[in-house]
Amino acid sequence: MGQITLNKVRKAFGDVEVIPxxxxxxxxxxxVVFVGPSGCGKSTLLRLIAGLExxxxxxxxxDGKDATDVPPAKRGLAMVFxxxxxxxxxxxxxxxxxxxxxxxxxxxxxxxxVDNAARVLNLAAYIERKPGQLSGGQRQRVAIGRAIVREPSxxxxxxxxxxxxxxxxxNMRLEISELxxxxxxxxxxxxxxxxEAMTMADKIVVLQAGRIEQVGSPLDLYRTPSNKFVAxxxxxxxxxxxxxxEAAKYNAxxxxxxPEHLDVSNTEGAWKGxxxxxxxxxxxxFAHVLDTGLSEGMTVRASGEVALNHGxxxxxxxxxxxIHRFDEQGLRLS
Amino acid sequence: MATQHSRAxxxxxxxxSVLLLLAWMIIPLSMTLYFSFLRFNLLMPxxxxxxxxxxxxxxxxxxxxxxAMRNTLVLxxxxxxxxxxxxxxxxxxxxxxxxxxxxxxxxxxxPFFVMPxxxxxxxxxxxxxxxxxxxxxxAQALGLQPFDxxxxxxxxxxxxxxxxQWLPFATLILLTALQSLxxxxxxxxxxxxASPLSRFIYIVVPHLSRxxxxxxxxxxxxxxxxxxxxLVTTNGGPGYASTNLTYLVYVQSLLQFDVGGGSAGGVVAIxxxxxxxxxxxxxxxxxLES
Lengths: 334, 290
Hints:
- The structure holds two protein chains of two kinds.
- By secondary structure, chain A is an alpha+beta fold.
- Helices cover 26% and strands 32% of the residues of chain A.
- Chain A has helices at residues 42-50, 92-102, 107-120, 136-148, 166-183, 194-200, 218-223, 228-233, 245-248, and strands spanning 4-13, 16-26, 31-35, 57-62, 65-66, 77-80, 154-158, 186-191, 203-208, 211-216, 240-243, 254-257, 262-265, 271-280, 284-290, 298-303, 313-318, 324-326, 332-333.
- In chain A, strands 6-7-8-3-9-10 form a six-stranded mixed β-sheet, sandwiched between helices. Chain A has a five-stranded antiparallel β-sheet with strand order 13-17-14-15-16, with no helix packed on it.
- In chain A, a hairpin with a 2-residue loop joins strand 1 (4-13) and strand 2 (16-26).
- In chain A, helix 2 (92-102) packs across helix 3 and helix 2 (92-102) packs parallel to helix 4.
- Chain A is globular.
- In chain A, 40% of the residues are buried.
- Chain B is 73% helix and 1% strand.
- Chain B is mostly helical.
- In chain B, strands 1-2 form a two-stranded antiparallel sheet.
- Chain B has one domain (55-288): MetI-like (MetI-like fold, Orthogonal Bundle), CATH 1.10.3720.10.
- The relative contact order of chain B is 0.14.
- Chain A binds chain B through residues 50, 52, 71-74, 77-79, 81-83, 85-90, 98-99, 102-103, 132, 146, 150, and chain B through 182, 184-185, 187-195, 198, 202-203, 206-207, 209, 290.
């Protein structure tokens, strides 16, 4: 079991309210990702769930029981920290065994569970080493190992991949997703990287300034962002926003169109512009188009190895059913 | 130092100070060694003659020597225990957030700036004096017989005085070590179900081990040669109850005018210091390796 409900949870540090009252329901077995820009309160929210911070008001219910005043260790949750927070003076084995030792388990039971975790995470080769002798990815695995031996009802991850290099990050992303499928335990994952959110989550919670902007599956958020913030945050490269007369044609204050939903042509189209920098990734080409006469420069995606050179004139046409319309408050017009 | 050239330059630049330090050490050491083999009494100038190992024999068979040896080790050990336990606890206390933190930290460090002679005199006359001392007043206020610290428990009193001087040093080093502890580690331990005491034992103390090693090594160097506190309080007495090796060397060479015997004592003190150093490095030296 690992069902977490937040009821009107509010957090203030002194006079500064970092999280205004907020409701959220996390179902058992779900992979939930909190995503948002730096300082949006996503880590604070995770720490509130973990019990490392006290809520200012409201209630946290875990598996039907009020856990608001329950100390962290008794909530049945395990956390993986951004810095991994391994105990540097203990070997990998002792690190993983530490929560079990604190729980007062027998020696043989501890050994059994540690060996089991080591097998699941391929730690056996360096189980007697100290954390200082491990690479970033290995440390990450040990930190996850320390979390899974407790057999918690939910895992909390606080930006666990932000200290890894790009290639390793992709690997660990897959491993964590795989682990979620194997264990089928609730996971709450905090990140500022929308790619991680899109690839891993069953449910994404987009946060800004402590408020939940939208909750939904990755593709829900991609297809029907409920406001301009979510529209701009989800998707890479970010959505183009156009205001003014061009938006008025669609009866909106602002319209948004994703780079991949613009058709590019050398001869004709709705909007005309001059290519600035273009990024050739092989699979895609992203071109930044300037001087469009619209409110700002546009990013377009062309498939494959299209020749878009600096200074070329191009025409762009939005796919009509992929245009997102927003009102003056930035809310979605359906 | 990347190139051959810069390495050679570095050696050339370093050599004057290295040579000076070497001379600074080697000349007094060899003179002490030389004197320790002479019959050299200040009352009989010009009568120095070769004495072989006589000075060592007399010094080592002097009953005072074993007292001094024991007192030296008890003094060092006692002060180390008090300062490290007290320093850790004070460090934990000062690591908390409270009003007036800056001022309190300065106050805690203050005893370190009081010179040993002065602090020992203050302790002797204002605290431990059986007639006018503060402790005597407390005892009388409670209707108890005042305790004459320096006569009844001379070594313990000196341990207390010296520990009071060194507590700030230990506190300061251990406080900075505490502040460098990653708070996520403590939070991880909290999530792992460790009680505050277990967190202290399994996370904080291992983290402090390197700082504690530094405190032990530095303090031992200075504590082996405690002198001023003894001179101004008990003069090594009553009997030999508070005489340490340093003080015995002083008695031998300057009160009994026996420079040869004093030098032999000095050499014995050097050997003792080296034995202590070897033991310390064996026991705790590995903590300094990263």
